[in-house]
Design a protein that fits this description.
Helices cover 10% and strands 52% of the residues. It has 631 residues and is mainly beta.
Amino acid sequence: MANEEIEPLVLPEAAGGNGTLEYSLSSEPSGLAGLSFDSTTRTLSGEPNSLGPHEFTWLVHDADGNRSEEDLDRIKFVVTVGEPVVARQTTLEQTLAGVTARVMSGAVANIGTRFAAPPVVAPRVSIAGRELPFGSTQLSDAVAAAETCSTATAGYNEWRRQQGGQQSGLHKDCQTSIQSVTWEEMLRDSSFEFSLTSPAGFGRIGTNALGERQTPEVTLWGRGDLLTFQGRPEPETRYDGEALTGYLGIDVNYGDWLAGVAVSHGKSKTDYFFDGGDQSYEQGLLETELTMVHPYGRWDWTEDREVWAVLGAGWGTATHIAGHREDDPESAKLEVWMASAGVRQELKPVGDFKLAFRADLSFSHVETGESESGGIEQSDINGITADVARLRLGFEASRTWTLENGRTLTPFAEAMIRHDDGDGETGTGVEVSGGLRYNSSRVEVEMLARTLVVHSADDYRESGASITARVKPRTGGIGLSMSIAPHWGAAAKNSDALWGDELSDSNTIDASDYSWALDGMIGYGIGIPRTDGVLTPFGEIRLSEKDGRRVRVGTKFGFPTQNADRNYELEFAGERHDRKNGEVDRLISLNFRRQLGENYGDSFDIKLTGERKANDSDYSYGMQFNLRFTF
């Protein structure tokens, strides 16, 4: 069996001949199937790494110099190296468990946006993270449209904040300029919500003077989600994949409770490697297509206590392609079920500090049926089962001081614990993090630090720290703008390592993850006389112990103030990336953005690029064109 130590084989000793006997061993195909041979002891040993039959020839000569066929002796034997079926199936089980864990996390995160969503006053549609405003007032009033822009993800941000993750920040600034959007970003950041109990979806009915719901509010909603993930359940085993899922749901919100059902359909592709992944038979691809039904609910037990639950059951197919059998895919039926429940409790404040406790518990199970393996003698995905369990809990505390001139100072601290069990990645982690945020009209400073202890790794410790400082330009974009963000060690992001989807352990983080990096940006807006235009030369730099140095310099010209005739921006920039391995990449770009009319969301942009990779002698050129309208 490939990659398995064979029992040492001592080849027979010859007798007779003239003088000292000389031995040699060869094979067809060559390479002795990856085994080692000691001619002194005549011993064949090691781990074979070449699949299939190998014909070995054991040859002996004496010392008289005669090399004719009559004066030698040989023995031929065949060694057949089989596929590492057990190792591959174990890896497939771990990979499928990893995919299932991400499906479970994605369902909880996306359906969870409904638990903290505000009432649907008007239809909310977000494409690529940009709100499309509805209603005559919003269409004619840019200010109202900008306000609507911030409400599209308010529920999601609130839920992510409560769950300990980063807020999406999709509509934080409602910028009038538009950036290039990939299909992945389009799907990941798109959603809609539509009230079925309001006239044509505009305005809510059934509320009293205090805005309290008196009749149920029925909401139809949808979301798109693109998730990349990776794992290393064992030192020589890893997987890396992505999953794209769409959700369509309907729920009823009546005062303290919400109940609904959602249907999801998603596809995933995951590359896996085991035993190092150097040989083709140590690699493979696992694809899944899955449809699930999710009943869900939330109950505000008291004013400061919330409980929620998400269930799921689904079916689909799993397709496996081994690295050395790319023309022989095999598929099998796939069944999945999951259950997740959680609670968030606001605690009694200590002085002016706000305290809260949150916890959730999740389970999932996946299994494959009998495979359709085509010409494959033995299926790798037939009858695979995997179980995943996750427990998370923690405390958070924060306090905000309001200073003069609208400045704020907010210290915060969190303590988290997470335990993962089952057939995928396992481990228990405890993390303590804290920091300080300062905000004023032009200056923002954030300091973060955390320490993570992973009990499943004997001597493993992880820590990180970061400081981010920003200076914003004056009104109209004129003046100095800059930011600097050094960080050390593993990323310090408010316990995201534990409250997110990935749990670090000794096998998932290498030494490079303890490196340092520095991000910096500086620009200066110069008002152009007799115009409303602003010319802003800028420079950006990223220094990384892991990824080398990246420098980007350029200038842009635009009109920050609202002007229907002058709503455009032109940017020219050059970029150089010096990698740690000595390779150098270069990129030049010219980007033109134009806002159409008075509606802040109607715009198009054209981007011309020229790129030269390290191994290319010439630049390759490209063009991107984006056109966007809001309705």
